[in-house]
Structure to design on (529 residues):
């Protein structure tokens, strides 16, 4: 399975690299991922239609030209809209367009047909339950863009090449146990993220960090009613949580960027999450929350670090913020995201959020909010310091805050776990990477802490279980070195040995001076000392 996955990843990345030519990786991403998604939908459609038609001894391709073609198509369409959420006719399948585009071994013009098919996929869902999940999904696939080529023929040639290469790859969708394609899609998103620099962090959380967040919110659970990400990007975090448990009943997310929002919905569908099981919205979470009446069992997020927001005084009457008495500053929305997530968290839920280090110690309104969360609400469960330079596009050190609404049972109700994982990583090229062993150490320490085994959860220079009294003494400053002593003692200096070395240097210096004086005398010039 791993070999098959690696092979598929390599094939897809080779296509992306070979065919993008001079096009910016960020632009090409939308095309290659969009076409992989189109191929996936086509294959899924064909497999399901064949299943529906099996009792009649027909395949999906065979109903074209059949005397009862209209009846069969209508029946398959009804079944597909309910089961899959969309419909494609046999002539609209990916393999059919790839074949027509490459007929006779040279490019035939298919751009117009392709645009119609992609549009039709979206139109097929109009007025159905899946309309929101498929609407405008392909809007970033601009087949008229000059980025694809100067002339219509150039554009067509490039698209035909991409379709032909993709058509040769077997996605193995018949194997229902495997998620190879979904993982390969995720891999591609990550590859484009690492190459796209600063913009990438906006839509992708490195898998190592996703894995930590997912494991933190699922400790002691093997299934979840719901998981939510208020800044869901491409959806990788939500999907990572699903991998950490046997079953997640419902996925919720909100994403402000329309392109990334489309990517997220595609990613959900590619990972075989049924359209009825996810609800992803395209809006600004802080200004216009879309799931405000829902409460979630698990919440994970990697919000944009220290983003600007309106911090409008009107928010003082918003239930998410009103009880705190202060709003996060307009120049740094970090705590606004935390407050939003706390509001949406269920009483039995856990949330884990990645934030810049400044949230641990900055004063003014942020200090006030921090104190309220710890002293008045007792929601803070753990603070985990991560290495610098593990996110694409920013080298700043970050931390994870874990919060729970129910921390009433002793002895946990009076404690907060601090972990300093900042020195535990491997340097790979220009990026720092958390290894499996580093992730396991964080999770094992957190598990020991949640089970009440504070001795095991305390490791010298790595982790410490603090009491709320200690945090109060520190005026609710959560800076990790205040709790985890990371001071490295220097080797004691042997003064006698240092004196002997200095004496030896002085003697060598005298000998050198004598040699220089001798040369100066021979040359008849003054010595420089």
């Amino acid at each position: 399975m791993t070999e098959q996955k690696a092979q598929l990843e390599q094939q897809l990345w080779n296509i992306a690299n070979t065919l993008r030519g001079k096009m910016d990786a960020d632009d090409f991403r939308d095309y290659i991922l969009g076409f992989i998604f189109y191929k996936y939908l086509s294959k899924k459609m064909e497999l399901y239609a064949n299943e529906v038609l099996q009792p009649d001894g027909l395949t999906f391709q065979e109903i074209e030209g059949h005397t009862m073609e209209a009846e069969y198509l209508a029946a398959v369409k009804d079944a597909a809209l309910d089961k899959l959420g969309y419909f494609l006719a046999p002539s609209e399948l990916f393999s059919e367009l790839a074949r027509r585009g490459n007929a006779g071994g040279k490019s035939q013009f298919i751009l117009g047909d392709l645009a119609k098919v992609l549009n039709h996929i979206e139109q097929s869902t109009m007025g159905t339950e899946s309309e929101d999940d498929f609407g405008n999904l392909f809007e970033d696939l601009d087949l008229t863009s000059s980025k694809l080529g100067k002339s219509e023929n150039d554009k067509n040639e490039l698209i035909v090449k991409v379709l032909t290469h993709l058509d040769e790859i077997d996605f193995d969708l018949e194997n229902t146990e495997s998620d190879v394609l979904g993982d390969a899609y995720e891999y591609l998103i990550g590859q484009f993220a690492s190459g796209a620099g600063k913009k990438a962090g906006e839509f992708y959380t490195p898998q190592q960090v996703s894995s930590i967040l997912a494991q933190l919110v699922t400790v002691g659970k093997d299934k979840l009613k719901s998981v939510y990400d208020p800044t869901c990007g491409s959806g990788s975090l939500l999907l990572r949580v699903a991998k950490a448990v046997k079953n997640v009943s419902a996925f919720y997310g909100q994403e402000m960027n329309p392109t990334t929002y489309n990517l997220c919905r595609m990613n959900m569908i590619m990972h075989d999450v049924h359209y009825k099981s996810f609800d992803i919205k395209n809006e600004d979470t802080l200004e216009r929350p879309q799931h405000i009446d829902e409460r979630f069992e698990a919440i994970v997020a990697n919000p944009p670090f220290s983003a600007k927001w309106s911090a409008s005084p009107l928010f003082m009457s918003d239930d998410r913020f009103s009880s705190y008495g202060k709003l996060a500053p307009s120049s740094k929305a970090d705590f606004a995201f935390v407050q939003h997530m706390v509001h949406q968290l269920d009483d039995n839920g856990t949330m884990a959020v990645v934030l810049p280090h400044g949230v641990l110690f900055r004063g003014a309104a942020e200090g006030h909010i921090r104190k309220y969360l710890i002293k008045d609400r007792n929601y803070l469960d753990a603070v985990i310091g991560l290495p610098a330079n593990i996110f694409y596009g920013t080298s700043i050190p970050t931390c994870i805050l874990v919060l729970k609404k129910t921390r009433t049972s002793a002895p946990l109700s009076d404690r907060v776990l601090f972990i300093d994982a900042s020195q535990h990583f491997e340097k790979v090229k220009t990026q720092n990477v958390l290894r499996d062993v580093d992730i396991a150490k964080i999770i094992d320490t957190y598990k020991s802490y949640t089970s009440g085994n504070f001795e095991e959860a305390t490791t010298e220079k790595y982790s410490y279980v603090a009491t709320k009294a200690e945090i109060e003494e520190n005026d609710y400053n959560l800076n990790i070195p205040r709790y985890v002593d990371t001071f490295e003692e220097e080797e004691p200096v042997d003064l006698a040995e240092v004196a002997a070395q200095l004496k030896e240097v002085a003697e060598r210096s005298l000998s050198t001076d004598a040699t220089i004086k001798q040369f100066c005398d021979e040359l008849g010039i003054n010595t420089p000392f």
Summary: The chain has a mean pLDDT of 90. The first strand starts at residue 223 and ends at 229. Residues 358 and 398 are 9 Å apart (CA to CA). The chain is about 45% helix and 15% strand.
